[in-house]
Amino acid sequence: MKSAILLLLLILPFVQAQPPPEGANWSRLYGDSFGSNFSPQNSITKDTVAPLDIKWIFPLFKNPSIADAIRVAEGVEHPPLVIDGIVYFVKGSEQIVALNAEDGRFIWGFGPPFNPKNRAIATGLIHTHGIEVIDGILYHLSKDCTIYGLDALTGQVKLAIGDMCDKSEGSEGYYSSSYPPTVYRKKGILIAAPAGSAYAARGFVAGYDLKTEEELWRWYVVPPAGYEGNWAAEAAGRGNIAASEDWGKSSLIGGGGVWSRFSVDEESGIIYFGTGNPAPVFNATNRSGPNLFTDSIVALNANDGSLVWYYQTTPHDTSDYDCGWNTILAKVSINNAERKVVIQGCKNGYLYALDAFTGKPVWEPLNLPGVARVNDRNANAGNAADVKTAYSADKSKWDSSGSFTLCPGHTGAIETPNAFAYNTIFVAIKNECVRVKPQPVSVRPPPNQTFAGSDQITMAPAAINTTVYAVDASTGKIKWKYFIDNTAIAGGCCMVSGRVVYFGDRDGRLYALDADSGILLWERRFNAIFSSPPSIGASLKGEMLLFVPVSGGPSAEIPGAIIALGLPSQEQATVNSYLTLGLLFIAAIASAVAIIQRVIYRRESGKSRDATS
């Protein structure tokens, strides 16, 4: 009650009688219920976008150590949500924060407990890719596989479903959750899935009754460890890959965890998502066959979890080419008829557009130009894939140390969310090749080390670069491209609004391109890694703001900040020169860290979560 009163006192002075502007809310992870990374707002556009002032900065405190966790990712790895004048985000440490969009004032925070003791929970890296707010409830899937539902206004716990990973039959690996649950609102079904592919846990998706919190169904991506037989024979005729001699009999297998956000079609009751790689990934000695349904785009019936269709992008993956981030559900004009299309970019460097009801490509998978390909065996190979090989490179291609070059590297060519707007797909590819020295897989690793953790992976002496593409969603033809040398985009692309494409690179530069031509409108340096595109939304006063998460993800070394950018006004911005950001980070963090930590942790103490034509 005290939290609710405090919130009202904060926001009531700013409430206006007129309705909010179009696109005032960035209400869901990646923008909307279809994951498009697009906002229809028309205040900040390509005609008004430069310059933008810094309105406020909310410094992020350095992550505290977490018991039993080897490493905790810094910063924020998703576009902040903006709903009715409140900004929501979750840090890599799983601290959830709500801020006033007007000035960045703290409203509430929540920190879930982490309890991996005697459970199949991975403890190597703690990080998370976002939260969801649906019908006033903020949803988060914690690292210890507890589903939380919080009151979005107060942060109070309204729902908690625990032990969903502990009930995974036939899984001998470790789970590491990454994306939030979603809701099939028509039937009140909560849908959640943990990740953990690299840790060899058995991937699955589960549906829960929102009222009773009881599990309704569970669909497994891979067979139980030690399974004997043809996994997924029941799916015959429902996908692009024939199931034969699948998986083998070893108990040292797993994978298929979900590293992507769900899209839900409320009309058809179908949910769409991408799946992770099989495990162990670089040494497939123990797993023959295509390894369905890993590295796939999947459609399930949300009512009962039954398989509708699947499209496997890299059969028998030996390169870590899963399909993650956002699975976009879009309405696209194909041959003068509007069709629902599922859009997905995968780490193999191919862009896919599939019919939402059949899973068949509406145009051939697009091998984006510029992707360096060395030993990327089976990427988009279909039924011609070599399902017997143990490695991506033949032994004749290994050097004397037992290593080989792999391009795209293990972090993939497309390792970022994409965007859909103006019947166009905006996608970024990166070149970042590696040298891989596979190790034996005779023993399952401990929870603080993935199967890939023992493999020796180093950077290859090859070019690093990024290209952002605009692709016609109706035809798969490239409209324009924008090339950037000597840097990579990992997580930072793309967001589209006002006919502007926004993205950030790993060197700390935020870019704005003309969405129609690919011409650079402006570039701004923030001196910290971008692991997410920004979001856009309005304060309760109706001022449209760009919310930029600076720093985030496993590669981030500084805590970073959430920075609000807006159009110039007569009021002086809190900060009006980005050249001072380095000093601001140091000063602001030093002065605010103790206060913010105390507020969050005391609040919850005793509540046991990337132009040329």
Compile the SSE list and pairings.
Blueprint lengths: L1 H10 L26 E2 L13 E7 L14 E2 L5 E3 L2 E5 L5 E5 L5 E5 L21 E3 L2 E5 L5 E5 L5 E5 L20 E3 L4 E4 L11 E6 L5 E6 L33 E2 L4 E2 L1 E3 L4 E5 L3 E2 L16 E6 L5 E6 L12 E2 L1 E7 L2 E9 L4 E6 L10 E2 L36 E3 L12 E3 L2 E8 L2 E4 L13 H4 L1 E4 L5 E8 L5 E8 L7 E5 L2 E5 L4 E6 L5 E6 L9 E4 L5 E7 L1 E2 L7 E6 L14 H24 L9
Parallel strand pairs: 1-35, 17-23
Antiparallel strand pairs: 2-42, 3-41, 4-5, 5-6, 6-7, 8-9, 9-10, 10-11, 12-13, 13-14, 14-15, 16-20, 18-19, 19-21, 21-22, 24-25, 25-26, 26-27, 28-31, 29-30, 30-33, 31-32, 33-34, 35-36, 36-37, 37-38, 39-40, 40-42
Radius of gyration: 23 Å
Helix content: under 10%
Task: Tell me about the largest β-sheet.
Answer: 5 strands, mixed
* Average pLDDT rating: 88
* Oligomer kind: single chain
Tally of helical runs: 3
Shape: globular
Structural class: mainly beta
Uncertain segments of ≥5 residues (pLDDT<50)? 7-17, 572-613
Strand content: 25-35%
End-to-end C-alpha gap: 58 Å
Q: Please give the number of β-strands.
A: 42
Largest sheet: spatial strand order: 1-35-36-37-38
Summarize the structure.
Helix content is 6%, strand content 32%. The chain has 613 residues and is mainly beta. β10 (147-151) and β11 form a beta hairpin.
